[in-house]
Amino acid sequence: MTKIKLPRKIRELVKKANGGCGKAAYAIAGHYRKGTGGVEENDELARQWLVKAAELGHVGTQSDLGSMFYELSEYEAARKWWEKAAAQGDVHAMKMLGQLYEDGRGVEKNKSTAAEWFLKAASTGDREAQLNYGIFLDDEMGQYAAAREWYEKAAAQGDYDAMNNLGQLYDNGRGVERNKSTAAAWYLKGALKGNPCAQNNYGVYLELEREQYANALKWYERAAACGNESSMCNIGLLYDEGRGVERNIAKAREWWEQAVEQGCQKSETMLKLTHTEAAPQPIAQNDYVAYEKMVLERSKFSGGGSDYVSHYVDRLGDLWTAKREALLSIMEDTSASISDDAMELFASGPLPDHKAEDRLHHLALCFLHGRCGLEKNLRMAKEAFKLAEIYHPDNAAVAEELVKLRACVTCGKRDARLGCKLCRGVRYCDKRCQQKDWARGTEPHPPHRETCSRAVNGIMPPGYFARLRDEAAKEREASN
C-alpha cells in the first residue's frame, strides 16, 4: 500500500499531537473535517483525531465529543466526556450534564443532581447558564424567589429571555408580590431587545390593563413577524371584536390561519366559529360597556366549543379583575370606604347603558351618576376622570366631563373659580351658589354637606396626578 505523504503543516501538527499536544490533535481533526490544510475531507480520520485530542485533555474537544454522542443518543458516552470537560471548567458541559440528569438520559433521573450541575454552570457567570438555572428553579423546583435572583443576573447581562421571565413572575405573583406595572416594565425591556414572547406579553398588558388597543396591535405585529402564534391569534381577536381597529372578520381569519399554521389551537377554534351562524355579533369599536356585555354573552355561548367558551370566560375574569383593581387603587389613594358588596356589584354586576371607552371612564361615570353599586360622589368621579385622561388623553368624552365638573354645580356657569375648601371636588361661581348647594342642593343634586368626599372619604395625596402623568408619558415614549 502506497504511503501518502502529508503536507508539511499537517506533519508538524502530527508531531506535536504525538508529543501530547491536544490542541494540535484538535487542529488536525478540523482540517480533515473541512478538507483544508492540504488534506482531503475525511470524517473517519477527523473523528479519530478528535478522540485523540479529547484523550489528551483538550477541553473543547471533550465537550464537542459529548455533544456528538448525545446527538447519536449514546448518552453514557456523552456523560463521560462531559464530566471530563466539566472538571476543567467547561460551562457547556456542566449545563448538558444538568440536562441529562433532569431528563434521565443515560442516568437515573435526579433533579437534585441536575440542580447541582446547573448551579455550577450559572456560578461561572455565564449568562445563558444563569437563565437556564432560573428556568429550572422556576419550572421544575417551584423556587420562584431563587429563580428571580438568577433571572435578574442574566437580565443584567442583557438576556431578553430572562427579562420576559421576570415579567411573568411579577405578572403572576410567583416569588414576588404581584405587580402588573413591574411586569410590564420587564416585558417592555425584553420586547425592545426583540424577544417575541415579551413583545406579545407587553401587547397583552397594553390591551387588558391599559386598554391601549392600537398600541397593543403594534407590539402584536412585531411578535407575529417573528412567528409568535399567540400574537397572531391576538391580532385576529382585535379584528374580530373591533378593538382599536375597524371590525374586519376577513382580516381576523387571515391572522388566525397564520396562527393555525404555527400550531395555535385557539385560532383553529375561532376559525370554525366564524362559520357558525349562531355566533353572537361583535360590538362597535371603543365601547367598553358593550364589549363587556359581548364577552359575557360569548362566555355563555354553547355553540362555540369548549376552547372558545374558555377563552371568553378567562377574558371576562380579566375584565372583572381589572375593574376591581381600578376601584381598589382609587380607594387606597383616597382612603375611601366602599363595602365589599358594592365592590362586587361594580366588578361583576349588571351593566348600565352608558357608553364608556375604557374602565376608568366607566368607573368615573358610575361615581358621577351613582351606578353599578357605587354611591354618587362628584369628587371620586373627578379623580377617576383625571386618571382616565392621563392614560387615554384622546378620549374627548372624558375631557368634556372634566369641563363640566369645573363648572358651577349650582347654576352651571363654566370655569367657576370658587371651590369647596374641604374636598375641592365641586366648583361655584360665587358664595351664594356655594351656600345654596351646601344647605339645600339643586335638583337632582342632594346638599353638598351630605356628599362632600372630604367629610366622607379622603382625597388624592398632593402631586399624585403629576407623578402619574410623568409615568404615563415615559411609558408611552419607551413604548414608541
Automatic annotation (TrEMBL):
GO molecular function ontology, one term from the record: zinc ion binding
Keywords: Metal-binding, Zinc, Zinc-finger
InterPro entries, sorted: Sel1-like, Sel1_AlgK, TPR-like_helical_dom_sf, Znf_MYND
Domain MYND-type as annotated: residue spans: 408-452
Family matches, as Pfam families: Sel1 (PF08238), zf-MYND (PF01753)
Top-level taxon of origin: Eukaryota
Family stated for the protein in its record: Belongs to the sel-1 family.
Protein's name in the database: MYND-type domain-containing protein
